What we know:
Jelly Rolls, single chain, four-stranded antiparallel sheet, about 120 residues, five-stranded antiparallel sheet, about 0% helix, elongated, mainly beta, about 50% strand
Amino acid sequence: MSYDSPDYLIRREHRESNVTGVASASVRKCLMFQAAVLKKVHALVVTAGTNAAAGFDILVGTTSVGEVTLGTNTAGYTASSALLNAAVPAMGVIDIKGKANSATLVASFSLEHEVDPSAAES
Length: 122
């Protein structure tokens, strides 16, 4: 049985705070218990990076679906990924991975998503 309530269209968010960049490595994994569609990832700089290319790759499982580049922007700067519309399966993982040269960057994230209306109810 799939979701038939119009509430499934409501955008939801999952927050990850004060994530420290690690060059070319996973820095945070988020488990989604129900099938969802990852719409966008929004980021807030807490501590500036030291390289113009500093940022984070966004993966669903092992597949890259987008990125957020924050560069050397100072604390308080915000940026968002492009529109992702990435399918996340039930019990799927969204992985935030530091880009190369991102070791000093610290950011907080809001993962904007909605329930996949064809998902099985849990």
